[in-house]
Design a protein that fits this description.
Strand order of the largest sheet of chain A: 2-1-4-5
Radius of gyration of chain A: 17 Å
Largest sheet of chain A: 4 strands, parallel
Helix content of chain A: 40-55%
Strand content of chain A: 15-25%
Oligomer: homohexamer
Structural class of chain A: alpha/beta
């Protein structure tokens, strides 16, 4: 089984760590293919960048040669999953939804800890549309931008662990979803501090994608996610894709 | 006052009729500037096309020379409004939200009548996120694609009027929002048949944009719609924009 | 265009400042007619007074000679708008709903700052019924009664600015609706302190009423707001009206 | 124990039948005092009439000499209960809420059958604010006005029974609340046809009022329903009250 | 009238105090029969114990000789009420729902104060399913286990009063429901400290059960609570029942 | 990896077919252990039977010798999952939630098709508590009891396929969850008729359980699902267990 795991930003070191996380979660026999979009922001922390990522991810997947068995959109709280579902016959899994969906099997309520405060409403909106917000205790921000996770990992970990602890103590979360990229040992540190299970979206998405493939299930094509109707699309895609 | 009214598809005849509708609703002294995106589908009827439109509309607005006072995104149920709000300091009004918001001043519940059934969930999702779904009695589809509205206007009108009548009689709508482009006389025909007020999104959006400008109000920049952070954006925009 | 702006209490100095606010927001050519009810409380801060105001406002409007083009009910969180809609063929705009509806075009979530804590549930209930509560971050009270706004304006402004700041910082509001009468410079002071746009309900209502009139739209009469059925009404209205 | 049961319209024959219904439900030792308001419509079927009734009921209760132990507002879906709660120290029970609250002990979902279609949204709004709408399967109208219940009882019964049957069969209601006045045998006829329990709002309200009195419980005065603040109320009440 | 009041745990001293509370609330002529289940935990503070209690309560009621007129399940936030409704033709009242339903007649919002924090989600879930959560301001835990209420009543009272005060001040509750057993004077102490009405679930349930019996109403049998279909039930009930 | 799959009724032929379904969905290396409870009804079609099953399933799992890695509760819409989560340190997956959670990755809205109409509210309640109801288009009943699925498989299949078709056409479901046991070819028949993906709860639960185990995740023990506190449990379990 081959699963494309598509980063939403254009920073290849992040694609690499996403790929490593995905590979660790994958079953034997699953090939993880990490992809970086051709265009877009070096980190996605808002709607403009997220819409651009939505389109860029779609083009990256369209340009990748068949066959593959599933696609994971590896950005937290980003736009675009519905478009991928229209374009593809294979299952598409968004890591925001994968994490929340998994968390709901583990505790009565879950919280998400993410990077910048400005992305909190995006994540909440994605969870609301996915029907996964009822059991969300809170979405909390560490205040650190995405790229800081790579620059000063220790400070990032501390800030995230702190917010996770507040989610458990103040918001009564029983599970934490990590709404940010893969730092070594982050999940362990959060669990150590809070005593609750920690869900990584990329890992969760890999197991869900594998499960859908094994069950022979894919996106319903009867209405919302039917393939785009044949029509003229002007000036698209750009030449470099 | 100058208001950009941006079509979401690349069909210029639709841009023209949107421009005419907008101009009819505008106050004396308001200049309406209709814009057509440089890239994208000839009609937007699904998520892939809508995400592409989101990005294309943003680039069209970014490329348009300042000054202008407000922007209207003239596509029903489409993605992208939040991105425009980040990019601009002037108010941004989406016609889906403008219509629903206006309808709520006119009756206890409203319905939307749109084109293809596959776009119904997109419209519902946009209204849900906008907090405008509680008083929505139904979103109904005429079954005719966007471009058919231009090709066989009479058939389109009949199908839309029929769904509007069912919304009023079966779903107890007291107001109809037209979730599709501007055919001459459509609103009159619907009102004649159903006896309820009919809201055109483009016209509603023009009055709301004018009102915001006159009140000196624009998008809040403290959190969700803060300007994008300065960062490297790779390979974007494409050369032709 | 002539718009009646009806105060909900019987204090004429408040009617006057409402009238001034309304006139400032009005377009050239719009005549603002401020009305004070014939009976009722000097300030409305609870349900008994609000129900009395509902009836008194309706009688004031019924007694005012035609023609006029729209009516604004200028009380925050008060009862009665639905009754006016039944009695009239012209549009009716409530300032609570006008403010919230306008705020939703400006930020992801809004808060209301009002006078006494006891009126908070009334405002919440009005917003809930109007389908405008989903994006309301909080309704906060300054703790000062309505008439105190006139007596010690500086203290009132301070208390309101303080609650607005807490709404932005603690409740994550991105827009503030002023749920209380027109003090000079209040909006400016709140914006200065919080950095967010501030919506005044009276001003917002004027632009919405003007917009509805210009669009040729008025209350739907097919169901909820149909004119009262012809019937015997005993002992009403009282002689002085 | 003395309980005031206040009609919302000025038709004394309806007051009488409400009084009889209430007396039948009352415990030994409970005195039922039926009251007719001094002013208002002969039947209440819309918001204007309902707001007028709200005020008229409040004045009727204020004018009635103490002591009494509880007040029942005997109109289905009407405004005003919150005002009574402010004015009084004794418990206030609205029959719409009493019926729904009782129905919820009897089945998974309940429906309301009422008179005219135009009153359906009023009832839904009252239930929504009361937090009693979640388990409401539907509010259905027989299409007959209030006074028709007295004029052609048999036709009224038939129309009501028919809607009750549709509520049970189509909407999956397990309990029916009668949202209209007391016709002899109506409940029996509905139960006979549908097999489900039928709740009469007046009877339910009597038992709830008695229960609150026996438990020594009354309206909380700490916030929403605190007594009106002392203030000047102009021109009110009218002379005849 | 005979009402069975069934404890959910197997501690007979608790059954006794429940019986005393129930008897104090009962009308003259009502016989209260307190029952202790044959099997189960000495106190119920979680789902395992609560499910066991559900079954044990059902067997206790099935084993009790007819006739009786109503059954009260006297555990806060416990499972099982729906099963009793299937087994019996007489009304069944759960004290969690009785308290909330009663509280809603007394104030705009209510809070529940209970024992251990771990039971808070159970209570919230019961209220959600009962459609009674909308007006719940909070469910708060005193931190003391059920049996501690008997061991150190004074400490328990203090902890409960403290949480009630925070519910009123911080969460804006206007009524308190006591989600724990009957300590002498607890309600008085809470009212004294907070100034709000306090609802005891057992007492509320007694008056509701009496009311339903007097109104001739019982559980609807058409769908959800129809009697179990005739079928083979293996190895049940256990020999000692 | 060893996964217990526990039937909720005492019919061993059903346990067997559940075991076969589970084994087909399991990865190589996963051992499926089907369990039948020691006591309870031959089929579970209502609350009484479901509560009994909840307890019986818990005892069956407690009696089964460690080690095992996960437990699946294989009854649609049944009580008890929360109790198992308290008792165990390994993950617990309910098939109702597994099916809905999986369906949400496949389409915008899903429907459930189950057996008897009386079980519909149980399923809806389970989905509501699980936070999985927002995207549920409908729960439909075929009208056939559980055991009929074994007795006249062809009639059962026809009735289920018919309801699935109505869910897709009338309720706009894009995915169907099978809320009933494993008949050969049922999923294929439904897909053939409706064109939408069909999710079997047992198969979905197996993949989710495996995923949780592989990710090293299990039930959070900090609050709702903490192990039962040490205490005296009287007369339990019965001797035969």
């Amino acid at each position: 089984m081959r699963i494309l795991v598509v980063n939403v930003n254009t920073t290849t070191s992040i694609t690499e760590s996403i790929g490593i996380q995905a590979a660790e979660a994958a079953s034997p026999g699953t090939e993880i293919v990490p992809l970086t979009p051709e265009f877009g922001a070096e980190s996605v922390e808002g709607n403009y960048e997220s819409y651009l990522a939505a389109v860029s991810v779609m083009e990256a997947v369209r340009a990748y040669p068949q066959p593959f068995d599933a696609v994971i959109q590896a950005g937290y709280g980003e736009h675009g999953r519905e478009g991928l579902q229209e374009l593809l016959d294979v299952p598409v899994v968004d890591i925001t939804e994968a994490a929340a969906s998994t968390a709901q099997f583990l505790g009565h309520r879950y919280s998400v800890v993410t990077t910048l405060d400005r992305t909190v409403p995006l994540i909440e909106d994605r969870l609301r549309l996915a029907g996964l917000l009822d059991r969300c205790a809170s979405v909390r921000a560490s205040g650190l931008p995405v790229l800081a996770l790579e620059e000063d990992a220790e400070a990032a970990v501390k800030a995230i662990v702190e917010q996770a602890a507040r989610a458990v103590e103040d918001d009564k979360a029983e599970v934490i979803c990590l709404g940010c990229g893969g730092m070594a040992g982050l999940a362990e540190r959060v669990t150590e501090r809070t005593g609750v299970p920690v869900v990584d979206g990329v890992a969760a998405a890999v197991t869900i994608a594998e499960s859908l493939v094994r069950l022979g299930l894919s996106t319903s094509k009867v209405r919302t996610y039917a393939a785009p109707r044949p029509k003229t699309v002007k000036n698209w895609p750009p030449r470099w894709v």
